[in-house]
Amino acid sequence: MALRDLTGAVDFAVLNGMTGGDDAVNEEVLGLFVNQAGLWSVMLDPKVEGWRDGVHTIRGAAAGIGARDLAAICAEAEAVDQKLAAPAVERVRDALQAALADVAAYRHELMLRGLKG
Questions:
Q1: CA atoms within 13 A on the CB side of 74
Q2: pLDDT tens digits along 87-102
Q3: Exposure of 80 by Cβ count < 10 A (0-12 exposed, 13-18 middle, 19+ buried)?
Q4: pLDDT attached to residue 1
Q5: Residue 99 in contact with residue 70, Cβ under 8 Å?
Q6: Residues whose CB falls within 8 Å of the CB of residue 12, separated by 6 or more in sequence, listed in order
Q7: Average pLDDT over residues 107-113
Q8: Using only C-alpha atoms, what is the Rg of the chain?
């Protein structure tokens, strides 16, 4: 299997451009993204004070790995009125899950390549 995504939620060419295609650096950056997602996703609830901070942080992390759709959905959510926050945050959660699925598949392939090498 070639290094690829599952859903197209992440453009890994962005990541590779940033890291020079270094598998170890890619793994480190993707690991940081997964950690950021775990830390900040607990704030993805419009009833939680500071939910916009969580969305904003995920937005930056997403842009850094090439998850453009997630970054755009986060930007939209940051700008919504509080009354519309629930559906906006739900879209962020869905887009985050798609990005995390692609990241998991990519990291798995990196691990397999490392075992073969």
A1: 27
A2: 999 999 999 999 999 9
A3: middle
A4: 34
A5: yes
A6: 3, 4, 5, 65, 66, 102, 106
A7: 90
A8: 15
**7-64 pLDDT, tens digit each:** 899 999 999 999 999 999 999 999 999 999 999 999 999 999 999 999 999 999 999 9
- How far is it, in rounded angstroms, from Cα 66 to Cα 90? 21
Residues 6+ apart with CB under 8 A from 57: 36, 40
Pair 15, 66: CB distance under 8 Å: yes
Kindly report the three-state secondary structure assignment for every residue of the chain: CCCCCCCCCCCHHHHHHHHCCCHHHHHHHHHHHHHHHHHHHCCCCCCCCCHHHHHHHHHHHHHHHCCHHHHHHHHHHHHCCHHHHHHHHHHHHHHHHHHHHHHHHHHHHHHHHHHHC
